[in-house]
Amino acid sequence: MIDLFILALIAGFITVAYLLRSKQKKKNLPPSPLGFPVIGHLHLLKEPVHRSLRDLSRNLGSDVFFLRLGSRRAVVVTSASAAEEFLSQENDVIFANRPLASLTEFMGYNCTIVSAAPYGEHWRRLRRFCSIKIFSAACLRDSSDIRRDEVRALLRRIHVELVTSGGNDFVRLKLQPLLYGLTFNILMSIVDGKREEDDETKEVRELIREAFEFSGVSYVGDFLPILKLFDHDGYLKGAKKLSSKLDKFMQKLVDEHRRNRGKTELEKTMITHLLSLQESEPEHYTDDIIKGLVQVILLAGTDTTAVTLEWAMANLLNHPEVLMKLKTELNNVSVEGRLLEESDTGKCPYLTNVISETLRLYPAAPLLVPHASSADSEVAGFDISRGTWLFVNAWAIQRDPRVWDDPEAFKPERFESETHRGKYLPFGIGRRACPGMGLAQLVLSLALGSLIQCFDWERDNDVAVDMSEGRGITMPKAVPLVAKCKSLPILDKVVL
Ligand code: HEM
């Protein structure tokens, strides 16, 4: 009798297990290429990754596809409509998490920084702080002097370099370090107040650059966690060392602010605002949270904006007709030999279109920042399980011939007529979209407009600028831009 009961129990158990498995098997996953055991599809990710993902999507004939990256599941989306569906009103919340990665564990203060924090109250608090204290219309107005001073300092630096090396002739100039210096100085002033260009500033600029280069390398241990035990390539050791150096510098900034509280020149810095909040809400604004926010603003804003400026200049050099049209617009706006002001840029639609077209073809975050799902869901007819990573291939979407006319061509005019809603997403969409978009656009407009207004530009050796994309998270140029440049008389008239 008991035996019969046990047999019935086992049979029942097997039936339930079978039913559960067959239910699981029925999961409708997006199409997927053939993979290997253990590594899955890792071998298919070739640099530049956004290109290899676009090619995979074409080979599979699907705008949504599934990859197994070692032990991680990932979904890749390569069309505007699919991106909209994954990040639409209802699904946006589900995909508003970020994947956990070793780098954000160390450098991101255990994933508490705004760009890596899971979706929830802590992340919302940090975003609210950013929206109110850095990126609101009033704060952007307040920081306009910083942008004007730093852009003028850039013009002065270039002018002096030209005068010392060639007088009135065209001089060869490597733009990248100058543009990177500009964007770093602007953000550093917003965060910490105006600083002299001393050894310490140079050191932290290098550290931020190093940290950025580090974050551009995908760490294989994040996909095959067993490798973390060995750290065969020294990645984890390097990340820890770098994050400890960065942390020391960030702590120094916070301590200096604490010591100098009340000084008028520090009144409006981001660190001052955060220290005030620390007094009223110490549990939410610890030193680690403050340091993390400072670091994220420097990391997220410096390279992205500088790289975009470099691509914009490269595009203009390869399209002299666009450069000429832009120069004419700028000269019409700032008449009487006056330097371009931020308030003028609103009257320069062509300048805005040149920047938009640059960001369309060369988005500084071609795969956005990876999202991760917090619950099982059904999207675009597919079953997506909790914890799946989501890569939105903005680069592919913005060059998709099904939705863009002549997509590979650099034509700023397209933004006058073509609607770009849904298919243009260089700053992302949804809750996790870039909070720094407004600031970035102001910096890009004033800096690019001023460079074109104040100098004549030519290609080096009259050879077309190489537009290949290099390795790295922000899609840098494979070959840094070298251009020939000559000061215009407007620079002599104004006191820089
Ligand atoms: C996130 C693009 C400049 C701060 C992002 C994302 C993109 C992006 C695509 C991810 C969106 C997503 O996951 O859906 C850009 C581009 C820039 C730029 C193209 C310049 C041309 C800036 C600047 C700042 C900034 C100047 C700050 C000063 C951030 C932060 C996040 C972010 C904090 C993380 C948001 C979160 O996870 O909640 N950016 N960005 N970005 N960006 Fe930007």
Task: Please tell me about this protein's structure.
With 496 residues, the chain is an alpha+beta fold. Helices cover 52% and strands 8% of the residues. A four-stranded mixed sheet has the order 1-2-7-4. It has a three-stranded antiparallel sheet with strand order 3-9-8. Bound molecules: protoporphyrin IX containing FE. Protoporphyrin IX containing FE binds next to helix 13 and helix 19.
Short description:
The protein is an alpha+beta fold and 496 residues long.
The number of helical segments is: 20
Strand order of the largest sheet: 1-2-7-4
As residue ranges, the low-confidence spans are none
Percent helix, as a range, is 40-55%
Q: Layout of helices and strands, plus pairs?
A:
Blueprint: H1 2-25, H2 49-60, E1 64-69, E2 72-77, H3 80-86, H4 89-92, H5 102-106, H6 121-133, H7 137-142, H8 144-166, E3 171-174, H9 176-192, H10 199-215, H11 235-259, H12 270-280, H13 287-318, H14 320-333, H15 342-345, H16 349-361, E4 371-372, E5 377-379, E6 382-384, E7 389-392, H17 394-397, H18 414-417, H19 437-454, E8 455-459, E9 482-487, H20 490-493
Helix pairs in contact: 8-9, 8-19, 9-13, 10-11, 10-13, 11-13, 13-16, 13-19
